[in-house]
Amino acid sequence: MKQQPAREQRLFDQDWHFYKGDISIPYAVKGGMTGGITDCGSLQEGEWLDIAFNDKGMEHQQLEWASVGLPHDWCIEQQYVHDDLLGSRDGSHGYLPGGTGFYRKTFEIPAEGLGRKWNIRFDGVSGVSTVWVNGHLIGEHRGGYIGFSYDLSDVLRYGDEGKNVILVKVDATEPEGWWYEGCGIYRHVWLEQTHLLHVGEFGTVITTPEVSREQAVVNVRTILCNEGTQSETLELVTEIYDADGQAVGSAVDRIFAGSYGERKQEQQIVVEQPKLWSTDTPYLYRAVSLVKLDGETVDRYETVFGIRTIRFDANEGFFLNGEPLLIKGTCNHQDFAGVGVALPDSLIEYKLKLLQEMGSNAYRSAHHPPTPELLAACDRIGMLVMDENRKLDSSPNGLSQLKRMLYRDRNHPSVIIWNLENEEVLEGTVMGARILKTLADTTRKIDPTRPVSAALNHGWNEGGYSEVVDIVGYNYGQRNNLDIRDHEQYPERVMIGSESASYTTTRGIYEDDPVRGYCSEYGTNVPSWGCSPERAWSDVAQNRFLTGVFLWTGFDYRGEPTPYRWPCINSHFGIMDTCGFPKDSYYYMQAVWTDEPMVHLFPHWTWNGAEGRVIEVRVFSNTETVELILNGRSLGEQQVNRTAHLSWDVGYEPGELIAVGKIGGKPVTRKVAVTAGQAAGIRLYPDRSRAVADGADTVPVRVAVVDGQGNIVPTADNEVRFEVEGAGILLGVGNGNPSSHEPDKATVRRAFNGWCLALVQASAEAGPVTVRAVSTGLASAEVVLQISKPSI
Ligand code: GAL
């Protein structure tokens, strides 16, 4: 018999069939073998696709199954419907219907797999899911933001026993939140096999109780499961490797593991001269746990971790490795242009990269736990995370979701706070405080190394609510300066700006437009609870006890259209739009959050027919002074106050407007706005020229409409058609227009204020992929990306 690997984790994302619609399936008739589409039984592949139960029994139906890969979001594939009472997924979900869908996949398990443990893990399914395997009802899961796993060992068919069928029903009719949530299996699925004696799921807990520059004590608790009938004496070897793959410490223990039992083993390993994880140097170590039986390795489990210390102080805020660090954060939902919530891992990293380039060092995964790949990326790039529980809910389901988040995420160095709720109705009540206390106690028991917080928008000082958590979150605390007043009244309270700004602006728009649903970038249409990023950040810069801020939001997201609804289908809160194109306030954040000299001016300088009109020109910079120059004439030099904008009133004349940033009187940086001519061509700006041939890696290609001189035409809305040939596909398109009803799964997209975006996904085969952009009356453009196999 073929030797099985110690542990195998197989990505289970490919070769699914998808049916959009409902199929009636009896919940359970007998224990197993309910037949129909939940199994293939004796049927040939293909035949089963038409067979389903209805209320009269099993019958043939002509069901249309599409071939899909995961991650998948069927919501984004649908058409917008203007109906505020669309089921219960109204405008707050972006006017895209939910509904029900089915996923089905056949797969084979080798004969040698018999006698091992087979576990399937779904990282996230949006909607209530029900899973059948080979006709057996396996489980139902509610909660779209946390994963779930099922042991399939009994119900699988091994070798000659036949093929296996998995069927997943996703009922996405009911919303869980008030933002776009997508529909379907939108995160990865994994099939994992292990020996009966193995490290449990999320089965290591790594803490660093003592850290100094000289050495770190690394505590590794390993949860060992023996699912066999025999008690065993095993050897647990834990080895620690540095980022270069050098072993830096290890521990060995002999352990008795009783049959059908679970054992926890503590090991302490000292790492000399540890390299600390920080936002500037996100250094990672790897712990390898080896389970050995009679000298043979029967399980091998890896955990990535970091060595760092965190501390929060009521007066001085946050300390990372003993150094004070202001939290420069954004809150974010999950979605992105072209893909809905089904982001390939590389797009998750792209979003984080854009935030980091803006100077942000922290991410709040509002309002739920993020996908595991996001945390892994934050560990790698040095982005702090406020990891968030979905709801104030101590019911069995609520607690189980919270616990899974904690078990899953507690080894990530990036995670610095567990946020247990957001703006719940029961804030400031005694019942709310009881529920919150249960969540806080549960959290502290599972992870005593990080503080717990709650993100409140009312009830801070009532019902004993704030006393239950370690850090009190202030959502929009700048209203009436209540955060500052609370600090005076409760000087021992550790506070954080858990949510702020909600600054509603539309990229490239300089006048509010209620008909089209656009908000000016001057910030003249901000909701009553919101404020400008300037106000939000100035408060933090002046009051260290606020610890930092999480701006609402880094990116526009689908749903929650505010202040307008239809035709708006997405929010305007982002510092970037849904494609990741910066709005003007992006540059304010860069001015206060980064030190590389920069200057930005707005609005654009193409106002045909507005000659002589006085336009307010605003400038953000982190230099000492800025001089504004119009067509070679100085309009004056102003002193920079880094936390505020500069402003000039300028009579419009076409030409060239330049902001020159100076330090010590010398020009160090400049931004030029040129009056653009007629749209004449297209420019393509791929984020990278190479991608990995894994069928998933995705390269965002920014598409600009330019005039004959190559200047961006800031009002252009030309329709661009994309042709992608070779080793890749067009995954989706977008343009950041919050009122666009064009489909994101399409080969054409209009530009919005000069820009649109194409997402090009690598195929599984290496080779070049050509991306061509064509538009009537414009010179077309082409780029070639190289898709290659990863070097081993
Ligand atoms: C907050 C809330 C967010 C979002 C935001 C809009 O109160 O936590 O989810 O709704 O307001 O301004």
Automatic annotation (TrEMBL):
Record's keyword terms, sorted: Glycosidase, Hydrolase
One Pfam family matching this protein: Glyco_hydro_2
InterPro entries given in the database record: Beta-gal/glucu_dom_sf, DUF4982, GalA-like, Galactose-bd-like_sf, GH, GH2_Domain-Containing, Glyco_hydro2_dom5, Glyco_hydro_2
Biological process per Gene Ontology, one example term: carbohydrate metabolic process
GO molecular function, one term: hydrolase activity, hydrolyzing O-glycosyl compounds
Residue intervals of the Glycoside hydrolase family 2 immunoglobulin-like beta-sandwich domain: 205-308
Domain Glycoside hydrolase family: 682-783
Every Glycoside hydrolase family 2 catalytic domain range: 316-457
Keyword Hydrolase: yes
Xref: SUPFAM superfamilies: (Trans)glycosidases, beta-Galactosidase/glucuronidase domain, Galactose-binding domain-like, Invasin/intimin cell-adhesion fragments
Domain DUF4982 as annotated: residue spans: 612-668
Chain ranges of the Glycosyl hydrolases family 2 sugar binding domain: 99-192
Family: Belongs to the glycosyl hydrolase 2 family.
Xref: PANTHER family: BETA-GALACTOSIDASE (PTHR42732), BETA-MANNOSIDASE (PTHR42732:SF1)
Protein's name according to its UniProt entry: Beta-galactosidase
